[in-house]
From TrEMBL:
Family: Belongs to the enoyl-CoA hydratase/isomerase family.
UniProt pathway: Lipid metabolism; fatty acid beta-oxidation
Pfam families associated with the record: ECH_1
SUPFAM superfamilies per UniProt: ClpP/crotonase
Top-rank taxon: Eukaryota
Keyword terms of this UniProt record: Fatty acid metabolism, Isomerase, Lipid metabolism
Lipid metabolism among keywords: yes
Coiled-coil annotated spans: none
Keyword Isomerase: yes
UniProt name for this protein: ClpP/crotonase
Length: 283
């Protein structure tokens, strides 16, 4: 990849993609006025990340909002279509298929082989929590206000928050409190519970800059090692220690044969920064 690589062809009507630095993709949510999600928006988000997953030149991704005042207000309830009437069983099967498709779109950040760093600011309500919970690293501007809003509209969050947030946060009591009440919580509370790893003073520009700095650092590392690390961390989350150790042994039996390992050793011997080639095949 060169300095001139352009990912703009991956953009859609509501999701914009650019490459602010080598090997880094910046994905921006851009549906005014408040980034409220309707089905075309969340479908496009999933498609964009699946396309990024097939780009062997990418090494890290930053997800942010293009809107200066907020990350996302969550679901656009005026655009939701929920089956009404008809036989309950058939309606349930239809709705189940819809929810599974929705979940699959938001899980695209998690299944992306590259680290995804999300930068939030302003308002980050409802579906925002589902989205950021599917990302690998979460940064928050100091002005962000979060909320797990689903309980306020008569449903349990079903797109990922309740599945992932208890595995992310160290304070399960607070997870329950926030999910039961739907109350707003601050960047400081989010950091305290472990939802975000860093609070950046300021708003959109400051938190996006910090996320891009982290992405640039990750992009300097071996792409084979980073992709493997993400894969193994996700496996560890969902399996026992013994299962993960055995799986890691099998994984690294192949991955230790990478040229990146030799390049890193040679660079260290010469006291130079290693340079790694891009992943040449699609993942």
């Amino acid at each position: 990849m060169t300095e001139t690589t352009n990912y703009s062809q991956l953009s859609g009507a509501f999701v914009k993609v650019s490459s602010p630095s080598p090997y880094v993709a910046l994905v921006e949510l851009s549906r005014g006025p408040v980034n409220a999600f309707h089905e075309p928006f969340w479908t496009e988000l999933g498609q964009v990340f699946d396309k990024i997953s097939q780009e062997p030149t990418v090494r890290a991704v930053v997800l942010a909002s293009a809107l200066p005042k907020l990350f996302s207000a969550g679901i656009d309830f005026t655009a939701l279509s929920i089956p009404q009437g008809g036989e309950p069983a058939r309606s349930a099967l239809q709705l189940r298929k819809h929810i599974l498709g929705f979940q699959d779109c938001i899980s695209a950040m998690e299944r992306c082989p590259y680290p995804v760093i999300v930068a939030t600011h302003g308002i980050a309500y409802g579906l925002s929590i589902d989205i950021i919970s599917a990302c690998d690293v979460r940064y928050a501007a100091s002005n962000v206000v979060f909320a797990v809003k689903e309980v306020d509209v008569g449903l349990a969050a079903d797109i990922g928050t309740l599945a992932r947030l208890p595995k992310i946060a160290g304070n399960h009591s607070m997870v329950h409190e926030l999910a039961y009440t739907g109350r707003n919580f601050s960047a400081a509370e989010a950091e305290k519970m472990g939802l975000v790893s860093r609070v950046v003073q300021g708003s959109r520009d400051e938190v996006v800059a910090a996320a891009l700095d982290l992405a640039k650092l990750i992009a300097e590392k071996s792409p084979v090692a980073v992709a493997g690390t993400k894969h193994l961390l996700l496996h560890a989350r969902d399996h026992s220690v013994r299962e993960n150790l055995e799986y890691t042994t099998t994984w690294n039996s192949a991955m230790l044969q990478t040229q990146d390992l030799l390049d890193a050793v040679k660079a260290a011997q010469k006291k130079q920064k290693p340079k790694f080639g891009p992943l040449s095949s699609k993942l």
